[in-house]
Amino acid sequence: MHHVITGGAGFIGSHLAEALVAGGHAVTVLDDFSTGRRANLAALEGRAGVTVIEGSVQDPAVVARACEGAEVVVHLAATVGVKLVIDRPVETLVNNVRGTEVVLEAASRLGARTLIASTSEVYGKLMSGPSSQASLREDDDILIGRTSVRRWGYACSKALDEFLALAHATEHGLPVTAIRFFNTVGPRQLGEYGMVLPRFVEAALAGRPIRVHGDGTQSRCFHHVADSVQSLLAILASPAAHGQVLNLGSDREITMLDLATMVREETGSASAIELEPYEAAFGSGFEDMRRRVPDLGKLRALLGPQPVRDVRSIVRDVVAWQRSRT
Ligand code: NAD
After folding, report:
1. What Rg value do the Cα atoms of the chain yield, rounded?
2. What CA–CA distance (Å, rounded) separates 176 from 112?
3. I need a labelling partner for 119 at 20 to 30 A (CA). Which of 94, 228, 261, 295 fits?
4. Is there an atom of ligand 1 within 6 Å of 57 CB?
5. Does 205 reside within a domain?
6. pTM exceeding 0.85
7. In sequence order, what are the beta bridge partners of 294?
8. Is position 321 within any domain?
9. Which residues pair with 224 in a beta bridge?
10. In b/e form, how buried is each residue of 277-287, taking b as 16+ CB within 10 angstroms?
11. Is residue 206 part of a domain?
């Protein structure tokens, strides 16, 4: 089948493209190479059925050309990464909303099976209380913070993307699924846009201090990109997922201090672990969540058990990849 992947030169997109090509599919990558890299596509160079188009998802003509004859559209292109989102609030909102609007219109015209990338950020401040034990369910109400705090602009842009996708499903019968990714990590993810695990590993390998924001007791759940890709393929093949919003991630928590310690162990680094106030890293008024654990019940009910590897093996993979680059 012919698949279009917007943002296909990015971290998740390039892994998905490789898996699809390995499965015998034709893949068109549409990317503006803003955060994506040609090196991510090295394994696909010269492969039959692979087309790479440099252009923006905000351009309807380019999107229409990329989607010509496509049966499946996977929309991953977005402005993403806490640092980018804080530094470029206009781009974040316009790129994520306008781009999704253009892609969904093209997909609807084709009636293509469609996935759009959403995020755990849409849950906003849910579960921010230290004593809350609940996991985040797709049918929970969301609690996005005030408009003067920039990170909520990213959350809101992705929430709007979900609204649009579901609107296309009901009004145009588009077979679309919105995926709420929870901290997907692995080889090819870069630390420069604020992603925590590559940032820690880069610092440890360079012998620089590993900077942990806040008091380090906040936790997250990390999902290996290879596991995410396996689940994405299963979702694409599942008619029951049409018109649905799905959490995708791991439900195994780790605190940022424990993650930093694990990175130090796995790199053998002597780097100090230093706490850095949120304000110093992101300016005043930054708000962070103590915990963010997905409820994976809906995903498992639709697709059965999904692969979730443990954090230490993920850290090892990321360390090995970072070492291979130097
Ligand atoms: P990434 O930055 O590696 O990938 C995004 C890709 O989109 C890049 O290749 C970039 O060049 C491209 N892009 C950006 N704007 C574009 C435009 N206007 N036109 C064409 N291409 C454009 O990030 P990723 O981690 O692979 O994220 C992929 C998707 O998953 C994003 O939509 C992101 O919001 C979502 N997501 C990722 C995570 C995660 O943990 N990695 C978590 C939640 C949501």
Report:
1. 19
2. 8
3. 261
4. yes
5. no
6. yes
7. 136
8. no
9. 185
10. eeeeebeeebe
11. no
Asked if residue 260 belongs to a domain, the reply is no
Distance 271 CA to ligand 1 centre (A): 30
Determine the Cα–Cα distance for residues 94 and 145; give it in Å rounded to an integer: 19
Distance 76 CA to ligand 1 centre (A): 5
User: Which one, of 219, 215, 216, 189, lies nearest residue 201 by Cα?
Assistant: 189
pLDDT at 132: 56
For a ligand 1 pocket test, name from 6, 35, 196 the mutation site with the most ligand atoms within 8 angstroms of its C-beta: 35
| Structural domain range at position 124 | 2-185+223-251+291-308
Q: Which of 111-125, 139-153, 284-298 has the lowest mean pLDDT?
A: 284-298
| CA within 13 Å, CB half, 239 | 1
Please report, as a single letter, which amino acid is at residue 268.
Answer: G
The domain that holds 299 is classified in CATH as 3.40.50.720
> Which residues are annotated as catalytic?
154
Averaged pLDDT of the chain = 95
Q: Which atom of ligand 1 is nearest to the CA of 223?
A: 40
Which of 5, 15, 34, 164 to mutate to test ligand 1, by most ligand atoms within 8 A of the CB atom? 34
Number of structural domains (the chain) is: 1
Distance, CA 59 to ligand 1 centroid (Å)?
Answer: 17
